[in-house]
Amino acid sequence: MTFLGLEEDPQKAKIVFLPAPYDATASYLPGARFGPRRLLEASPYLEFFDEELLCSYKDLPPFLTLPEKELPVAPEEALRTLKEQLAPHLKAGRFPVTLGGEHTVSLAPIDLLRQDYPDLLVVQIDAHADLRATYQGSPLSHACVMRRVREMGAEVVALGVRAISEEEYLYAQEARISLFWAYQLKKELPSVLKTLATFCAQRPVYVTIDLDGFDPAEIPGVGTPEPGGLSWYEGLAILKTVARYQVVGFDVVELLPKDERSAFFAAKLVYKFISYLFCPQRAFPGGA
């Protein structure tokens, strides 16, 4: 199974897709382990021509989709397995796109990329801060992933957050993590995008997209569907802003494919962001 259903030549590939079928720490709705497969299955049914950028997959670097590998239940072992899969492709200079699976899987590519980019900035689209020290007894829960990223030494900018514990809020204040609440994005999107651009202009960027950052009216198939999230076009405005700078990888996680439109949404989001990053027509006509 390949992204867009295309034939692939591993020798020519410049973009690598890593399926990460893992949801062992899911706390509300399980099933995100099926997300990567359903995203890939939906992807051949996208329109391959982008009306915004006026390009198609033929204008993009060649893809390579890695085979989906069953992961151990223990999160430490699952992350180790993912890093073993991905590391040779990073050494070969391929751009990594991780397909989740729960948010914990993001730690694998981020940890590897920090070895080459010690000043890495992680831009997070998410309904939740994911800044807990531990959750349900695990420091590697999906609810702790950005706390672990911060402890790696990476700076974090989070957008779309609308569910946070008091513990996380106090930690974010202490660690000076930039949180842009969902209500701010609704009221002040142009201002937020200008601030985001100043962060991204200073260092290499990794983007982690938890699909529950979007409103469940747009994509209901997520593990924790918090109301009041981003619209499709608000999300694209964020990605267009980030794509102007040095993005070194991204992931799309937390797809729970209980309905067909959620998988299609996720597949199109991946394709749009790749197009923003690599399409030769990068003037973004009509964009933010």
From TrEMBL:
Q: Give the EC class as a word.
A: hydrolase
- CDD domains documented for this protein: Agmatinase-like_2
Which cofactors must be present for this protein to function? Answer: Mn(2+)
Q: Which GO terms describe its molecular function?
A: agmatinase activity; metal ion binding
Please list the residues that bind Mn(2+) 1: 103, 128, 130, 210, 212
User: Does the keyword field hold Manganese?
Assistant: yes
Q: Does the keyword Translocase apply?
A: no
Give the record's cofactor note, including how many are bound.
Answer: Binds 2 manganese ions per subunit.
For this entry, list what GO says about its biological process: putrescine biosynthetic process from arginine, via agmatine
What residues bind Mn(2+) 2, as annotated?
Answer: 126
Instruction: Write out the similarity annotation.
Output: Belongs to the arginase family. Agmatinase subfamily.
> Which NCBIfam families does the entry link to?
agmatinase
Protein name from the UniProt record: Agmatinase
This protein's species is Thermodesulfatator atlanticus
